[in-house]
Structures are given as C-alpha cells and as structure tokens.
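quick one before i forget lol
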Amino acid sequence: MKKDNSLVGIKELAKLANVSIGTIDRVLHDRPGVAAKTKERVLAVLQEHDYQPNMIARALASRKARRIVVLIPSASPESAYWKAPLEGVRTAGSEIQRYSFTLDVLLFDQNDRHSFIPLAMQLLEEDFDALVLAPMFHQEAQPLLQHCDENKIPYVFINSDIPGSDSAAYFGPDLFQSGCMSAQLINYISNPADEILLVHISREMEMQHHLLRKEEGLLQYMQDNGMKQKLHKLVIRDTTYSAIEQALAEQLKNTTIQVLFVTNSRVASVARFIEEQQVAGICLIGFDYLPDNIAYLEKGIIDFLLCHKPVAQGYKSVMSLFQLLEAQQEPQKINYMPIDIISKENYRYYEN
C-alpha cells in the first residue's frame, strides 16, 4: 500500500532515511552538498514509498508556516560584536524560508535591561514556534522562559547560558574555560613578579553576568597553577570612551601593569587609550574578531584575541531549531564553540 503523501509522510521519510527534509529536497532537485551514500539511501526510501518530486513540492507548499524568533542584542557604538551572530542568523534564515519558516529578529541594548523587558513581554502575547535567546538579563528573561516551558515552545541560548534551565540547547563559548585559557596564556607571557589588570567594561554586571564567569575561570587557573602574579581588577560601568579613558588613566597612575586583560570585545577602546597615551610595556589581551580589534592587532597594540566563532553560533542556533521542528531531531544540549587564539601573525587565515 502506498503511503499517504502528506507532510507527516515527508517527515517519516526523513526519519527512515536518517536525514533532514532539507537533504530530501536537495536530492530531489539534484543539488550539491549530499554525500553519494546518503543520496543513494534517500532515493531508495523515496522509491520504496513511491514519492514523486511534485508530491513533495505540493506538501511543502501547503504546510503551515512556522515562526522562529531571535532575541539578541544589537551592535553598539562601542562594540560591533553582535553583527557577527546576526550574520549567521540571517544566513540560516535564508536557507529555511523555502520550508515555510519565517525568522523574526528582535534587538535590544545589551547595556540596558529596560530595552529587553518590553520585547520579552511582547512575545508573551504573540504566537511563535521556537526562540533563540541571548540571556543577558537572567531575571528579566524568566517570564518568557516560563511561558516557553508551559507552552512547550523550544528555545536555545546563544553566547551565554543559564545553567539549570530547560533549554533545548546552548551554542556559545565555555565561559569558565575561556577565563582559564586566558590565564594560561598570561602565565606563558608574563613573569611571577608581573602585575595583571583585569578589566570588565559593561553597564550591566549582575552576579550572574557572563563576564564574571570568565573571571572565575581565570582566578581558578591562577590558584590551581600557583601563579604568583599580582591581580588587580577594574570594573568600568560607563562604556563611553571618555569614561574608559578616565578610569584607565586613574588606575595606571597608581599601578605598574605588565598584562592587561579585557574580558569582552571592548578591548579596542583600551587599545585606543594605550595608543593615544603612548603607554609602553603592556601586553594587551581581549576578545573577538572585529574590525576595530583587528586594526589594533595589526598595529601590535593588541597582542592576542580570544575568539568563539560568533557567526557559527548564530547559524547553528537557528538551524538546530529548524531541525527540531522539521524532523524532530533533538539537538545536543551543550554545543561549545572553539576557544581560538588570534595574533598578528595568523588573523588573516581566521574565519569567524
């Protein structure tokens, strides 16, 4: 007996062939990107169930549209970091739209929790099928996450995680290990008598803030490995350059620093200060492969950048929800990105 040629049937075929609906589509239209053995298996399953390309096309066209919402920060004048995940999100969105998926991106100011709240509340009143969330504000995100849990709406976290949540997946760095990696790098390039300045630049620094997890990793590595370098800490809550300049000038007036570690992508602002003030003898380490950071890397003012593939984070987070909704393929719960160390000598070969 021939199978019912409905959307459910298509999903069943994808399961039988152990592939996604997208792979079935590529095979039917003879598009590249499918391994020969996989193509053979898909064709065999399609033939066994007497599915024809026009039947697939009609079923795909008649399905109910599904909506994935992406709630992440916007790029800011002080840091263009979030342009990179957004690039990955947009790429994924263009790939899934042919399968009757819509992708809506909502952007908030990562320096202002009050910009996040109305967007989260807005979603409580709307219909959507899945959510990608950058959980910058843990407490303010709870009503939205509870709504998702109660209504069985899958959600994934990007760039930072909320441990203990019921998210479908997390795509981003192991923040604690990023701090450990930074400390190991500092240990290689400094002497026991040197002094280190750790700098947080963020308007929002609640106890669960992701930057603090990097600090925890750095402190743990220093303790576990008997590092004798003296550590100073500077928290700058005003992210404008004038405020950063003032805070650094005051700090460096009273201490002699050999290594300066910035815990996020705003390291370019610190590099600008070092360049303008002609500060010598400091090794500067920060995060993220961004144009401003790369410019200072080329000049030799920034020595090392730690990078976590933000474009891939955005792309994979959306595609994981697509696969979950489309083919019931559960994503891996934790998906850590690489911790890459970029220098003046290798940055030209790096893909974000």
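fyi Residues 1-8 have pLDDT under 50 and may be disordered.
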